[in-house]
Amino acid sequence: MELIQKHLKHLFIKHVLYSSKRNISKYVDPDKTSKAIRQCFLNYFINDHSHDFVRSSPVIPLHDASVPFVNAGMNQFKGVFLGTHTCQYKTVANSQKCVRVGGKHNDLNIIGLDGYHHTFFEMLGNWSFGKYFKEEAIQLAWVLLTEHFKIPKEVLYVTYFGGDSSLGIASDLETKHFWRKLGVAEDRILPFGSKDNFWEMGRAGPCGYCTEIHIDRLGPGNRAKFVNKGLQDLTELWNIVFIQFNRNSDGRIERLPEEHVDTGMGLERLTAVLQGTLSNYDTDLFSSIFKGIEKICKDTPKYSGKFGESDWDQLDTNYRILADHARMVTVCLADGVIPDQNQKLKKIMRKVFYLSENVFKKDSGLLKELSNYVVESLGGAYPELERNIRQIHDIILYEEDAYKLVRSNSAKEWKKILDQQPKLNDLDILEMPGLPTAYKELSLALKNKISPELSLKLYDTYGLDADTILKLSQVLNCQFNVQDFQNELDKVKAKSRQSSAIKDNKIVDKMVKEKVSVTDDSYKYHYQKTNGSYIFFPLKAKLLKVISHNAFVGNLVPNVNAALVFDKTNFYSSAGGQISDCGVIKFGNNVFQVTSTDNVNGYIFHNGVLESDSAECVPLKSEGLMEIHRDVRLDCMKNHTATHLVNFLLKQLKIVTCQKSSKVTPNYLNFDVGIFNDKLTIEELENIEKKINLLIEEQVEVLTYEVDGYSLHEIANLICIPGEVYPSSEVRVIEIKDANDFLSREPCCGTHVLNVSDIEDFCFIGFQSLGRATASLHAVTGDRAKLAKLNGEEMLSKVSEWESSMKDYVNNLEVFEEGVSNIKESLKYSMDGDDILPISVKHKCLQKLNSMNTEIKRMRDEFIETEMKKALEKINEENTDKKFIVHYLKCSKNMENIPLHKATKVCRNLPVLVISYSDNVVKARCCVPKDMKSPNFDAEKWLENTVTSIFRSAPSKAKDQDTSLVCNMKGKKVDSDKWDMLLKKSIEAAKHYAEQHLKQQ
C-alpha cells in the first residue's frame, strides 16, 4: 500500500511547507488522511510484526491517582513497568487518547499560540514487555518512517543518551551503534543528557535511556546544532524509551530483571509531516472542525492560519483554541468525565462558551454542534464517541445553561470589583464563578501572606487555581508560596485516601518494618445459601497485634477499647460505600465485641472491646473465632445489590447520569446521582421501584467474577465511577442480567446477595434535590420495605380521614390547621427510624395536605372578606361625610398568622384600621388612601397615636410600602383577662382620632 505521494521528498527540498496551509482540504489521496496514517501505523505493528492491539484506555486513569488525566501512551501499562502487573501480551501497539491540562505536562495556557500544542492529542505507540529491545525497536521505527511513510532520511536526526556523571551512568553507545548499523550518518546521531534522553517515571521507580527521532521540516541540509532547541520547524517526531533500570528511593540505579520498550509518536505531528504542513492545525484533524465553525458562524471571517503579530485580532488563535478544546471536551465527555467532578474540564468548557458568545457570536449550541464534527473525525478509531453521543450532547447543553446562569448572577458583582481593581481584568469570572466571593474573603482575611490553609480553601471552596491565587496576591500586595499551597493540597489528598480510625501512621509503619503480614480478608466473600438461608462461616484467626491508646500492647485487656490485627479475617471493612461489619471474636470464654473495622494499607483493624467479668487477658498469638453479625451483613448485601439496580435503571431512564456517592447500611441505602437532563420525578422513581420488584419476582441471578484491572476498559457496558481508582488486579465485577434488556455490570468490592429475589422487597423512602443536577435517593429492602409500605397504607388512610372531616372544623379552623401541621411533621422521619414511608406515599400525602392548607387559606380569606364587607356595609349605611373603618376581626381568634392585608384590601377607598387577636397576640394594620392623608393624619400617625400606644407596641413598616399610607403594628403578647378592656379602649381612641383629624381636612 502506497502511503505517501511520490513527490513528498520534492516538497521538503523545495521548502513549500510554509505555504501549504490551505491545501489540506483538497486532498484526494486517501493514503494521506489522518485516519489512513493511524491505521497504517497499527497495521504495520499488528499485521506485519505480530503485535497485539490493546484499545485506548479512557482519558481518566482507572488505576492511578497520581495524574488527573492519561497524559501519555504508557499510562495504562504503568503497572507492568512497576512490576505490579503482568501484561497478557508481550508486544502491543495502539493509539492512546491523551489529555494534557495540568501537572508536569500543562499545555493549556499556550494552546492556539503555536501550531503544535494541544490539550487533547493521540499518541501512537508500540511496546515490548520483555520480548524485543533496542535494536529491533530502533529498526521497527526507522523502517516505518523511511520506507512505509517514505519520509526522506536526509531530513531526520536521531539522539541518544550521552551519559551523566551525577547519575553514575555512562553513554548509551549501544543505541548509537544500532543507529549507525542502520546507515544513519554520524553527524545525524547526536548525544544529549538526562533532560532529553533519560526517561524516568518518577523520583523513584523504573527508568531508562531513550532515543528520539527528530525531523527538520525545512528539508535537507545539516542543522544538527539546532536539535532540541525548541524550533517549530525542527521537532521531535518519535520517542523510543528503553526501560532497563530502577531508581531506588536513595537515588541508586539498578538493573531491572526484565527490559521493556515504550514508544510514543504524536499522530497530530506525524499527520502534519505527511500532509506537508508546519502546523498540526492545518491537517484534516482540524480542518473539518474549522469548516464546521465557518458553516455555523457565517458572520465570522474564515480561518486563515495566521500566527503571532499577523493574527492581530487573535481570530485565528481563537479558531485554534475552539477547535482544540472541542476535541478535548468531546473525548472527555465520551469517556465519562463529569465537569462537576473535574474543574479543569469545567473551566475549559466555560472558556469555549465564552469564545462562542464573544468571538464567534453564537449565544448557544456551537460546542454541541462541533462535537458532531469531532465524533465524525475520531469515532472510527474510538467507537465510544459514537456510542456516547447523547451523553456528550446532554452534558454540553447542561453546562452551557449553567454557564449562562453563573454569568448573569456573578457578572455585576465582579464588575464592581474590577472598577476598584482593574489589574484583575484578565481573570475570567465566567471560568471561575467563585472569584467575587473569594476576593472578598481574601481581602478581609489578609495580613501580609496567604497561608497554605487559606489558599487551600480558595482552591477547594471557590475553584481558584494556583495561578489565579497568585494573581490575587500580587494585586493585594501579599505573599503567596505556590509550593506551600501544593504541599498542603498533597496532604489533604493523602488524608482523604485514608479510611482508618488509626490516627498515627507510625502504627502501620512499625508493622511494615516488623514485616507483619497484611491481613488476608478474602474470607469476607466466603458465604453461601443453603435451603433458602445464608450461611456466613466462622473463621479461626491468629491475633498478631493489639493497639490501645494508639500504641502496641502485649496483651488484650478486658473492658478497654482496642484495635486488633489478625493474620486473616472474614469481617468486611468499609469500602465501596458499604459500612463495615460488626460481630464478635471469641477467645475461649472471652468475647471481643467488634463495633467496626478499618483497612489501612492492607492491615484490618478490628475496633471494639473485650467484654469480661474477670481480669484475664488475651495474649498475642492467641486464636480467636470470628463471627460476623449475620443480619447486619445480609441487610447490607440486600441494600448494596439494590444500589446497583438503582444505578443501572437511572442510567437507562435518564441516559446521562453519574454516580456521585453511595452509602450502604443495614437499614437503608443512599445514592446520590448527577442527572444531566430533565430532573427526576416521583413518577419515574415509582417506575424504577416497580422494575426492581419485577426483577425480584423473576429471581434474577447475581454473578460475581474477577477480572484483570487493566482490562476493565475493554469490558462492554461496564459502569465505572468517574475519577474512581480501581485495583490493577483481581477486580470484582458484579453482573445482574435478565432475559430482556437489563444488564447491570459494575466493578465493586462490596458484598452482594446471590440472587435478586433475596432482596425480597424494594421501596424508595427519600428523595431530595441537591443543587441543580444532583438527586439524593434513599431506599430500603426486605422487611424495612414491607414496613414502609404498611406505614404508607396507614398514613394515606389517616390523611384521607382528616381530609373528609374538614367540614366539621368550619368554625374552628385553627384546630384543623394544627392537625394538618402535625401530620406534616410526622412526614419528616429519619431514614433509620420505624416510621419510614414510601416516597410516593409521602408525596401524595403532602399534595393532599397542601391542598387542605390551600382550602383553609381560602376559607379563612372568605371569613375575613365576609366580616369586612359587613363592616363596610354598616359604614355606608351611616349618613356621614367622614367615613372610615375601625374594626376588630372577630374571626381572628380562630386563626393563626392572620393575614391582615386581606382585610384592609376590601376597603381600598376608605381609611381603615383593623385589629386581630390570636393565640394571645394582638396585631394591627392601618391603611389611608393617598388623597385622604394630611400633615396631621396618615396611617403611621393614626396607628402610633392610638392602638400602638395603648398596647405598648411599636409601628412596623410594611414591605415595600410608604408608612404614611400603610403601617403595621408589631405583634404584642396580651393576657386574655386584660384583652377586652384594652381592645375597647384602643377602638375608641382610634375612632376619636380619625373623627378629629378627618374633620380638619
Automatic annotation (TrEMBL):
Residues 32-785 form the Alanyl-transfer RNA synthetases family profile domain. Monomer. Keywords: Aminoacyl-tRNA synthetase, ATP-binding, Coiled coil, Ligase, Metal-binding, Nucleotide-binding, Protein biosynthesis, RNA-binding, tRNA-binding, Zinc. Belongs to the class-II aminoacyl-tRNA synthetase family. Alax-L subfamily. GO terms for molecular function: alanine-tRNA ligase activity; aminoacyl-tRNA deacylase activity; ATP binding; tRNA binding; zinc ion binding. Zn(2+) binds at H640, H644, C748, H752. Its EC number is 6.1.1.7. GO terms for cellular component: mitochondrion. This is Alanine--tRNA ligase. Pfam families: tRNA-synt_2c, tRNA_SAD. The keyword Hydrolase does not apply. The keyword Oxidoreductase does not apply. Residues 842-869 form a coiled coil. GO terms for biological process: alanyl-tRNA aminoacylation. Binds 1 zinc ion per subunit. It comes from Aquatica leii. It is an enzyme of class 6 (ligase).
